[in-house]
Structure formats: structure tokens, C-alpha cells
Amino acid sequence: MKKYKLKTHKGTAKRFKVTANGKVIRKKLQNRNNSHMVNMRKNARKAIPERFVITSKANVRKIKKLLGK
Q1: C-alpha dihedral over 66, 13, 27, 43, to 10 degrees?
Q2: Among candidate residues 31, 24, 33, the one with its CA nearest the CA of residue 65
């Protein structure tokens, strides 16, 4: 019986990355609503850099399955 390849879940692929060591990282959503009322904010507040956080171990198996890895 053939084993079929799973398609990559595109929503998950946009939100998570797998490192070379196999850890799953995601963006820390500190700067939410980035395009809402931006003209009122100070430049320093708009320019907060993206931060990445290691995902909890409870979700790693599900995320890797959705990514097809």
C-alpha cells in the first residue's frame, strides 16, 4: 500500500519555523495590531524588533505534523 505525502498546512508554515536542531520557534506577538492606527504611534514604538520564542513541547509534535516534517 502506498504512503501518501501530507500537504503542508500553509497557515502553520507562515507562523512557525523549525531550526536545524529540530526546535520549533514562533514570533512573540508583542507588537500586535501593527497596521491599526499607526500614524499616532511614536517611531520607537513602531520599530520594535521581532522576537522569536521556542514553542512549548506540548505542541511540537502537532506543529511538525502540520509542516510535513
Answers
A1: -160
A2: 24
d(CA 4, CA 27): 31
Q: Say whether pTM exceeds 0.70.
A: no
| The three cell numbers locating residue 19 | 531550526
- DSSP per-residue letters across the chain: -PPPPPPP-HHHHHHEEE-TTS-EEEE-TTS-STTSSGGGS-HHHHTPPP-EEEPPHHHHHHHHHHHT-
Q: Is the pLDDT of residue 20 over 90?
A: yes
